[in-house]
Specification:
mainly alpha, 298 residues, 0% strand, 14 helices, 72% helix
Length: 298
């Protein structure tokens, strides 16, 4: 038996894969994150605590965040983000529910989801021009309403103020809500409703006691994502508001590019640091809610 075992062909152990070669494919990703996320974030953090002209460390820039005009800008940004996120979340959730009731592979669902994917990224100068051409002071809808005795700007030009920004932001918040909330609605099993009905429950009880509590974390998490999306938006407001700085991104632009008040570049970085902190808190809450959603609907 020992001779037979000696003559048997020896099985060669598989060669372990080189970890360096396996990690080589992640180099472009980490390079992208380093160049476009890590380095800009470090620049903002360091600049927020640096004096004018790079002379030493200081807390003056951070203390300046308590000035009234900066606090007002943060307040308007939070109000704009919260209102557009709430409106977009409610309307987007209703549209997503309408899609869930349609055929999963139907043409309607494919068209709406494709349109939502495009419109969620439709912003900046293009979106601002679309609203100006539609409901601006000389927009064709505005002119048509004025010809019929209705003036949407009889009480002031609200399009260039906070209500107008809320309306414009809601335009891309609704399709974004459809994209992020639709998977949660797909996770609701039809068998749960059938079991609820078989036990004598009605529609109101199903949504308040079964589906509602299950979807609440996903809805709140999606609303937080919409809030962060609106809070960090810049191009649309910059193209629409030509004068003044009603929100924080426009205040940062003024601090970095102003030719009237010099030496405020680091103040702009301090305001950017404040935005980073707000978005970080929001995204941390979003991550917690996503974990709770995955626990029940995964």
């Amino acid at each position: 038996m020992a001779e037979i075992a000696a003559d048997a062909p020896q099985r060669v152990a598989p060669r372990p894969r080189l970890r360096g070669a396996a990690l080589l494919g992640t180099v472009p990703f980490f390079a992208f994150v380093t160049i476009f996320l890590v380095i800009p974030t470090l620049t903002v953090v360091i600049g927020a605590f640096t004096g004018d002209g790079g002379r030493g460390l200081t807390l003056a820039n951070v203390r300046a965040l308590t000035d009234d005009y900066i606090l007002d800008a943060f307040g308007r940004s939070i109000t704009l983000s919260a209102s557009s996120a709430l409106i977009g979340a409610v309307l987007g959730a209703l549209l997503a529910y309408a899609l869930v009731t349609a055929k999963p592979d139907g043409l309607l669902r494919r068209l709406v989801t494709a349109a939502a994917g495009v419109l969620a990224q439709f912003g900046g100068v293009t979106l601002a021009f679309a609203f100006l051409a539609t409901i601006g002071l000389s927009g064709f809808v505005t002119l048509w309403l004025q010809e019929h005795g209705l003036d949407p700007y009889a009480n002031g030009v609200w399009l260039f103020e906070l209500p107008g920004l809320t309306l414009v932001y809601t335009y891309f918040q609704i399709p974004l809500m459809v994209i992020v909330f639709l998977p949660a609605l797909d996770g609701i099993r039809p068998q749960w409703r059938e079991a609820h009905v078989s036990l004598g429950g009605n529609t109101w009880q199903y949504w308040t006691r079964v589906a509602g509590p299950l979807l609440a974390p996903a809805f709140l998490g999606s609303a937080l994502l919409l809030f962060a999306n609106a809070f960090s938006a810049y191009a649309t407001a910059a193209a629409l508001v030509s004068q003044g700085s009603p929100i924080v991104p426009l205040q940062i632009r003024g601090a970095l590019t102003s030719e009237v008040v010099l030496g405020q570049a680091n103040l702009g970085k301090a305001m950017a640091l404040g935005m980073v902190v707000v978005v970080a808190v929001v995204m941390a809450l979003y991550s917690l809610l996503q974990k709770r959603t995955a626990k029940w609907l995964g």
